[in-house]
# Entry
Amino acid sequence: MSRANPRLKALVLGSAAGGGVPQWNCGCGVCRLAWSGDQRVRKRTQAGLALTVDGLSWLLLNASIDLRQQILATPALQPKGEGRRSPIAAVVLTNAEVDSAAGLLALRERQPLSIFGTQATLKAIGANRMFDAVDRAVAPRRAVCLGEAFEPLPGLKLELFAVPGKVPLWLEEGNVGVDDIGEGTVCVAAEAGGARLVYAPGCAHVTEDLGARAAAADVLFFDGTLFADDEMIVNGLGDKTGRRMGHMPVAGPGGTLEAFARHADVRRILIHINNSNPILIEGSPEEAKVKAAGWEVAFDGMEVAL
Ligand SMILES: [Zn+2]
# Structure
């Protein structure tokens, strides 16, 4: 049945945080299960969504370092017909982290596409000359102001908005603010034909603005990096809390489940999930807890039609 209105569709290209699942050098509980092929843990690539309204041309929300593998796994993103022409028409970057932006390097074969991001994100990318391999003459970079609507694909309206976060890991120096609100960490509000989606893969805490945007959305993809704030430390995987990494925990006081308890009408999906997070083990008590709270756990290849 054809519809007069454009229809928003999202594909989860990758659902994991930096490193993916399993991570190349990791033997944490979740990674050990994944390495051994245990059916309870799905392998996952690093986070990104693809959006479309006509099913033909696509927008990427972030270009993870796993992008080539994600395209291989996603027929809709593969070239159709002859010549060099990808269905990927545009990319929006929410920050300049390696796991959000390094995949641009996989898009360097003179494919016309537009790369959108805040001034701060494009400045960080622009300061790294390796990204000049993605020719600006064919893949122009377009700075977008916070709160300003733009249309990266016909019929798809987007707005970037700030949430608390921090600068990319590779740009950290001195005392790192982990609660900065500015162009460094942004989320995406997308709208097509009245359907609304919010993509928030990194967020240190929920602001009033984010809460209101989430309430107005049909679906919310939200930062599921760590289940517990001290998860990295307790598991001997690192010395930083989740909050120090700019990610609020899923559970506990001030965590995601608590912060969005009022949003029961919104389809809520955890994404950007670190390999240390036990919600990645199907049947675990932690997975049961997020499901009982009304959340879904994103997986690679998940489709959300609105
Ligand atoms: Zn691991």
About this structure: Helices lie at 29-35, 67-72, 98-101, 119-126, 208-215, 231-234, 256-259, 285-292. Residues 23, 26, 28, 30-31, 275-276 surround zinc ion (CB under 6 Å). The chain has eight helices and 14 strands.
